[in-house]
């Protein structure tokens, strides 16, 4: 038999070498980053052509109190020096702002300045929404716009209608094919394709949203709310397909609780996507065979077992020779 110290040493080496590999194979890989902040997919996206037809700035209207590219209605009030106020800080208001033309480019970026504020420090709402839909909607229950929309709605929700594990204010995106009703009572929970909890109300700087859509690649929303030029990725979703040539809109709603919901500016641009140069030059990663981790761990075990057998054989042979020499002496 092997000396006990040698057996203990070999067993320790065997476990330290093989256990991590077996553990990784059993778990199916790492879960690092799960539940963490959203990772941006925007990369080196470059704005190319500004789209005047889907951009709006102060003074917002011409001498006839109209805008060539946008319509507004409901409770909306235009302050030519400051903002487009979709709702005032009063109960039961609903206002909207919609582009007159559909958005022709298949890939684009929309950056918009907004402000949500009011008299109350405790109870306020309900919020506002950004829309990219097949048609222009009228006033309705979905944050001041019609329900059963066809396209994308992004909701800046400042009032929770039910209890949730996440905090409010909250931003979430819902894709709809025109057949689904927005679940007001659950604040859209279970319907969203991407979401985040960000306090966009009463920010020290003018808050901004930046929606980037590259057809066939990704949809991403980033928010500036704490410092200038400091963007937080709210969500980034791959494989989302918006309707071709959607209309761009904004709407807001107040119920028993209220807030001022202001759109300050909207800038829309065509974009081009450039993958990082370093990534583009690297060869694609080699795909490993299914179960490769398990077989690698098994091979390590067999290697140590073989070493154990060789050492045991050497010790046995050495003891046999020594016993033979001792027998000859007598």
Structural overview:
The structure is a single chain. The chain is α+β, with helices and mostly antiparallel strands and 330 residues long. It has two domains: 4-28 and 292-329; 46-275, Jelly Rolls (Sandwich), CATH 2.60.120.200. It is 20% helix and 31% strand. It has three helices and 15 strands. It has helices spanning 4-27, 277-281, 292-329; strands at 46-50, 70-74, 77-79, 83-87, 94-99, 108-117, 127-133, 150-157, 170-177, 194-196, 207-214, 218-224, 232-238, 247-253, 260-272. The strands form two sheets. Strands 1, 3, 4, 6, 11, 12, 13 and 15 form an eight-stranded antiparallel β-sheet that branches. Helix 1 runs antiparallel to helix 3 (292-329). The longest helix is centred in the C-terminal third of the chain and has 38 residues, at 292-329.
Briefly, what is this?
By secondary structure, the chain is α+β, with helices and mostly antiparallel strands. The protein has helices at residues 4-27, 277-281, 292-329; strands at residues 46-50, 70-74, 77-79, 83-87, 94-99, 108-117, 127-133, 150-157, 170-177, 194-196, 207-214, 218-224, 232-238, 247-253, 260-272. Strand 12 and strand 13 form a beta hairpin.
């Amino acid at each position: 038999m092997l000396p006990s110290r040698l057996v203990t040493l070999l067993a320790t080496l065997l476990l330290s070498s093989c256990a991590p590999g077996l553990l990784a194979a059993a778990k199916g890989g790492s879960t690092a980053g799960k539940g963490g902040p959203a990772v941006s997919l925007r990369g080196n996206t470059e704005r190319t052509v500004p789209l005047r037809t889907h951009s709006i700035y102060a003074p917002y209207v011409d001498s006839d109190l109209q805008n060539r590219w946008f319509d507004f209605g409901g409770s909306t009030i235009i302050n030519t020096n400051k903002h487009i106020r979709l709702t005032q800080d009063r109960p039961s208001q609903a206002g909207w702002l919609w582009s007159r033309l559909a958005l022709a480019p298949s890939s684009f970026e929309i950056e918009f300045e907004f402000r949500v504020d009011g008299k109350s420090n405790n109870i306020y709402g309900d919020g506002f929404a950004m829309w990219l839909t097949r048609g222009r909607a009228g006033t309705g229950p979905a944050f001041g716009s019609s329900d059963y929309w066809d396209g994308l709605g992004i909701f800046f929700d400042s009032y929770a209608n039910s209890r949730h594990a996440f905090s409010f204010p909250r931003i979430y995106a819902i894709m709809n094919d025109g057949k689904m009703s927005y679940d007001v009572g659950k604040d859209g929970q279970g319907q969203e394709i991407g979401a985040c909890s960000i306090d966009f109300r009463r920010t020290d700087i003018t808050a901004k949203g930046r929606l980037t859509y590259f057809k066939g690649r990704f949809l991403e929303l980033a928010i500036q709310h704490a410092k200038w030029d400091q963007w937080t990725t709210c969500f980034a979703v791959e494989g989302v397909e918006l309707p071709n040539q959607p209309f761009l809109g904004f709407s807001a709603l107040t119920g028993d609780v209220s807030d001022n919901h202001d759109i300050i500016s909207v800038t829309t641009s065509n974009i081009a996507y450039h993958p990082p140069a370093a990534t583009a030059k690297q060869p694609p990663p080699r795909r490993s065979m299914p179960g490769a981790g398990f077989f690698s761990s098994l091979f390590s075990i067999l290697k140590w077992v073989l070493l154990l057998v060789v050492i045991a054989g050497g010790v046995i042979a050495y003891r046999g020779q020594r016993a033979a020499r001792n027998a000859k002496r007598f």
